Write a sequence for this structure.
């Protein structure tokens, strides 16, 4: 039993980062919220008790770009799957998003021609293209090298501002850079600790001493979480 | 060099063949030398070409029909889960019974003309095509399917935009196998009963001890089969440039 009487609240318009030991159920939680996993009793709803199904965009650790489609067509995948016309306004919107993730020149390239960082930026553009108020991210930047990750974090924080984001990550610094709230999940059945709320707006400067103090605290909590029953 | 290589291989094989003829001192009606066969090719080419064209047409029609039926079957069993339990045994039976055993029945039902040979070729490639495509259809990257579901894609649009394109590389490997085995179906059909085609020509030549003509027909068949394989392989590579094995461009 991964979850029992488990309750997670995501404040609207803010980014919540979720950390915890491997196997604690972070990905399972994301999949439950996204409606991809079944077999659990519970509800995922907004403050008016309306279910959120259909208002969620999902971004995984793999970029999940379709190798046979151009970058632009990948960004337009959701529209194509829903049978919407992908020319005109939607295409302009997709190109605009690609420009914002600095991929305007690669719109017609195939994913295989891009670097890992570029592919993940394309996946970010595809996620934003969905225009969903809630965004679930499962370690989206963990496969990237440190510098690329640092850049894409700043980009993601800017582009995701105003949306309700749940970001699962293994990297305490990433959580502290991007999260309005940072929570550690531990134990079985899983529970959450009180949220850390670092000062300032994301993306935060990693050189900020306040952030480093929080990081020490977070590492301590993560170490405890590993011991938790 | 890559163009020269097949020529060198062919010349070496012909040389080896001639050496066997000289050493064994076999009479021409048992093992004709390459020169005699070349002479046959040079003098009887209109006849060889006429029969060859018929066999090639049977192979191509069988390939088209088998690909069509095989792909449709794969789509049906991928779409309707219960259909799998009903159609899979039929599929296995279609492969388990040797086509050689079916050939006389097909000739009896469909006649001495092209139809029975096309049916043979279709039958022999139906299983590899279906199995390969179905395998591809059910091995879609689960992440893509999850993503498509969160995007609100219907089952049909997910099939169309994700599962089918993702299964195309698997289908192409099925088609390569099909291209290699389709000539077997056509020629076996011609052996069992026909009034034309390379198989027919070989059988006639054999009965009249014209072994050199038989070898010439075999040569034409080989050229067609190899040519067809490379043509299909080339076309499939062009059709799916995103496929992983296309990394060959880099070297």
């Amino acid at each position: 039993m991964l979850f029992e009487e488990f309750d997670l609240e995501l404040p609207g318009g803010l980014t919540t980062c979720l950390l915890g030991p491997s196997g604690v159920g972070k990905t399972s939680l994301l999949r439950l919220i996204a409606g991809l996993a079944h077999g659990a009793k519970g509800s995922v709803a907004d403050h008016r008790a309306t279910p959120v199904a259909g208002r969620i965009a999902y971004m995984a650790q793999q970029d999940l770009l379709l190798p046979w489609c151009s970058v632009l067509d990948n960004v337009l995948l959701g529209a194509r799957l829903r049978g919407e016309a992908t020319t005109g306004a939607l295409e302009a919107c997709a190109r605009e998003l690609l420009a914002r993730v600095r991929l305007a020149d690669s719109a017609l390239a195939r994913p295989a021609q891009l670097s890992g960082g570029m592919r993940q930026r394309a996946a970010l553009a595809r996620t934003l293209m969905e225009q969903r108020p809630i965004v679930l991210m499962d370690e989206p930047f963990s496969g990237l090298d440190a510098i690329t990750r640092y850049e894409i974090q700043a980009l993601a924080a800017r582009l995701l501002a105003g949306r309700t984001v749940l970001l699962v990550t293994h990297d305490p610094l990433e959580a502290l850079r991007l999260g309005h709230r940072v929570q550690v999940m531990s134990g079985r059945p899983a529970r959450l600790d009180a949220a850390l709320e670092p000062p300032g707006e994301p993306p935060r400067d990693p050189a900020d001493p306040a952030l480093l103090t929080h990081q020490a605290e977070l590492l301590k909590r993560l170490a405890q979480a590993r011991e938790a029953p | 060099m890559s163009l020269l290589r097949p020529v060198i291989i062919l010349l070496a094989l012909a040389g080896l063949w001639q050496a066997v003829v000289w050493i064994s001192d076999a009479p021409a009606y048992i093992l004709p030398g390459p020169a005699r066969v070349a002479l046959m090719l040079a003098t009887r080419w209109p006849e060889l070409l006429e029969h060859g064209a018929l066999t090639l047409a049977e192979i191509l029609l069988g390939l088209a029909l088998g690909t069509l039926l095989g792909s449709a079957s794969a789509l049906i069993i991928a779409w309707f889960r219960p259909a799998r339990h009903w159609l899979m045994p039929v599929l296995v039976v279609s492969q388990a019974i040797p086509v050689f055993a079916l050939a006389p029945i097909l000739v009896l039902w469909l006649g001495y003309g092209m139809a029975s040979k096309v049916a043979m070729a279709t039958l022999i490639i139906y299983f590899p095509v279906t199995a390969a495509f179905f395998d591809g259809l059910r091995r879609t990257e689960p992440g893509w399917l999850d993503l498509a579901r969160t995007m609100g894609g219907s089952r049909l649009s997910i099939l169309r935009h994700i599962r089918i394109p993702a299964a195309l590389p698997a289908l192409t490997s099925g088609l390569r196998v099909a291209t290699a085995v389709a000539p077997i179906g056509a020629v076996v059909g011609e052996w069992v009963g026909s009034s034309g085609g390379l198989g027919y020509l070989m059988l006639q030549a054999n009965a009249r001890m014209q072994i050199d003509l038989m070898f010439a027909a075999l040569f034409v068949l080989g050229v067609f089969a190899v040519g067809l394989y490379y043509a299909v392989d080339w076309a499939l590579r062009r059709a799916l440039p995103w496929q992983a094995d296309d990394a060959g461009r880099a070297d």
Summary: The CA atoms of residues 17 and 182 of chain A lie 5 Å apart. The radius of gyration of chain A is 18 Å. Helices of chain A lie at 26-34, 71-75, 77-81, 89-100, 116-129, 146-159, 172-178, 209-227.
